[in-house]
Amino acid sequence: IAAFSESADEVGGDYYDTLRINEDLVSIIIADVSGKGTTAAFHMSQMKGIFHSLGQRDIEPDCFMAQANQALVYCLERGSFISATYFIINTRTKKVRYARAGHCPVLYYYDENKTLEYFKDRGVALGMVRNKSYANFIKSYEFEYKPGDLMVLYTDGITEAKDKKGEEFGYDRLLTTVKEVSSLTAKQVQDHLISKLYEFTGTDNIDDDYTTMIVKFS
Predict the structure, then answer these.
(1) Helix and strand element counts for the chain (H, E)
(2) N or C terminus: which one in the chain shows less Cβ crowding within 10 Å?
């Protein structure tokens, strides 16, 4: 796993983390709070507490999201929300369970046939539905990974980064950039992506937080 995060302000609202549940299971999260600055950072610290509390238990990802949403209902002010994707990786069965709550779609590279795709799953961001019916808007998914596969996680600051003409980096450019180095290590993929991103924008001054998390399966 390799990760990168750069805040637009002194503090930001992006969050990524990992937690070992037991010998076989590892939980991973990437999240993004609406807004920027101190308020976003405060809400993200609440998300961190929730992750470290619930992430220690081997519960289904959709249950994790439902319980996280219920906890955040009492913390987030109206109009604020958190997009997130939560994963449980089982290194014994080589399977990954996950749920996506309104976050950017996972970009996945299949080493066996050298192809990339965005996962087309659905889910509502945390805080958007402020009652227990939220469980109806979230779902767990599962896939099996193979050696050499690559999972690219990121926040919308990456895809929405603009060049001097106002054009966004976008999903197509993200896929093309990752494809150029998909066979390399997680750190090398990350370095290439961030280099291409800054080259595209032409500036170190960013309008939104940049966060990526690259997972290479062995």
Answers:
(1) 5, 10
(2) C
Average model confidence (pLDDT) for the chain?
Answer: 92
Tell me how far apart the alpha carbons of residues 189 and 174 are, in angstroms, rounded to a whole number.
Answer: 11
- Give the torsion through C-alpha atoms of 158, 164, 165, 170, to 10 deg: -10
Q: What is the dihedral of CA 78, 98, 111, 119, to 10 degrees?
A: -50
Contact 119, 106 (CB under 8 A): yes
Please give the model's pTM, rounded to 2 decimal places.
0.93
3-state SS, residue 165: coil
pLDDT digits (tens, 9 = 90+) for 152-177: 999 998 999 999 999 999 999 999 99
Residue 165, Ramachandran bin (φ over 0: left; ψ between -120 and 50: alpha; else beta): alpha
Give the model confidence (pLDDT) of 180-191 as tens digits.
Answer: 999 999 999 999
Residues forming beta bridges with residue 162, ordered by sequence position:
168
Strands 141-144 and 95-101 come out as: antiparallel
> What's the CA gap between 51 and 30, in Å, rounded?
10
Tokens representing residue 166 in the block: 């106002």
Alpha carbon of 71 to those of 51, 123, 134, 161, 179: distances in Å?
11, 18, 12, 31, 39
Alpha helices, DSSP H only, in the chain? 37-54, 61-72, 156-159, 170-179, 186-201
